[in-house]
Amino acid sequence: MVHSGLLKEVFSVDYFLSVRGRQGDGYSNRMGGAKYLAVPETAGTYSKSHEIRATQWVRDVQAAAGATAQEKGHIVVFVHGFNTDQWDMLERHRKIRKGLESQGFKGVVISYDWPSDGSVLGYTSDRRDARRSADLLFSNGITRLSKLQTADCDYNIHVLAHSMGAYLVREAFDYADDDHVTAQKSWTVSQVALVAADTSSKSMKAGNSKTSSLLRHSTRVTNYYSPFDEVLSVSEVKRIGVSRRLGRVGMPQDRAEKAVNLYCGRFFNDNRAGFGDGTAITHSWYFDAPRFYEDLFHTVMGKLDREVIPTRGRTDQGNLALV
């Protein structure tokens, strides 16, 4: 009850599962245990004071998912890439939440925050951290998810992974299938969206063991890619000896039927003046493009076939493209 006669303003809450180590009241770029955070949108950063119990966090996320008697709720899990400090992470999380909400999304976005160096020179150490973080995503995320899912589950769970986050997600799904207890459970995510994915293109070839778990436990995998992505260029010194990247060249022709390749190069090139300058923007522009969020919204909702989503067309080579 409000006694002042004024309506109390209601703020959104941003939800995080973080495996960054603590540093004072904040967090570092080192690995730590899993922490569940509920951060008011008015907060400029997140800290120990925002940590809550895992059980309460799960209940709050479910409540925010927007399930009704007529429609299932939607939970989008965002996994960031390399060279992302916690302040950039918070800003990107909020861009994604607001971008989807602007399209009519009524569900909740949560982010898995793993430690990366916040430096391009930290790529190799970030790769090692991603492997360890994949194990924690499995043990604290996927196992919890598998326990919650039932035949009449009221929630659709989706994954949005950017850059090295795609590698982390792929490995976490693989760990889940290697774990006897989790493998015995029937669990799935609805939509998986890979954006500027820093994994090998050939790993998405049909039957490839590296992605078999990801495909088996998802309804559809959509790959957003652009040949203008300079960060994923094999000419980068840190990538010598690394195979061509999924987020730059797309999936191979002989991919699984549920895998969708979405060419975004023409859209980026036609609109690049509006995204700013620099190498990094060629890798992250998606999160500053309303058109991307419109496409992602339709992808997540899953009501339209991949061929009739209104943000898509065909290239002169017949490939599906963001337009």
Automatic annotation (TrEMBL):
> Gene3D superfamilies annotated for this entry?
alpha/beta hydrolase
- Species of provenance: Phaeobacter gallaeciensis
Q: What is the protein's name according to its record?
A: Alpha/beta hydrolase
Give a single Pfam family match: DUF900
Protein origin, superkingdom: Bacteria
